[in-house]
Write a structure and sequence with these properties.
177 residues; five-stranded antiparallel β-sheet; alpha+beta; 2 helices
Length: 177
């Protein structure tokens, strides 16, 4: 009987110390649902508007000094997926990105994606390849600038993000043509 009240007290005292999980939402992207044409690439046989979606996040962990936002297709027929968007070094004070975000104006930097450009590259699976998943991920990082050099490959950036992230949250949309 004595253990029960002590255990209850410990649980109650620990409650406020439990960190709130990072949250990612979007009025444009819904988990597991098809992406709107406005977020689809314009090129490579795709005819979308190529606008990045609006994203909002909350509850970054203590120690977050910068944010990265990526878009990755693990289903691309490359053997290594396809990086569509790599935005790094965003200020930790940001709580989201507007639709069609200008990363430079937000004090971040863009890394070359697998299309060969440094801007958002929307969904664009090969015709007839079936449904692909598009993973929008927000990364909370313990550094102001990710140390990846001036012109890193997307794979190097992916490695460093996975290695250094304090937390991350992913929202997955789908698309096929």
């Amino acid at each position: 009987m004595v253990r029960s009240p002590i255990l209850l007290l410990l649980v109650l005292l620990a409650g406020p110390a439990i960190a709130t999980e990072m949250k990612l939402e979007s009025p444009d992207i819904r988990e597991g649902e098809p992406m709107h044409l406005r977020h689809v690439f314009n090129g490579f046989g795709c005819q979308g508007e190529n606008l990045s979606p609006q994203l909002q996040w909350q509850h970054l962990p203590a120690g977050t000094q910068s944010i990265a936002v990526t878009l990755y297709d693990p289903d691309a027929p490359t053997g290594s997926g396809w990086w569509h968007w790599l935005a790094l070094d965003l200020p930790a004070t940001l709580q989201g990105l507007p639709r069609g975000a200008d990363i430079g104006k937000l004090q971040g930097r863009l890394i070359r994606n697998d299309f060969g450009g440094t801007v958002y590259g929307g969904a664009c699976p090969p015709t007839g390849h079936g449904m692909h998943r598009y993973q929008f991920t927000v990364w909370a990082l313990p550094v102001k600038k990710l140390d990846v050099g001036a012109d890193p490959s997307a794979a190097v950036v992916g490695y460093m993000l996975n290695h250094q992230a304090l937390a991350r949250k992913t929202l997955t949309a789908t698309y096929h043509q």
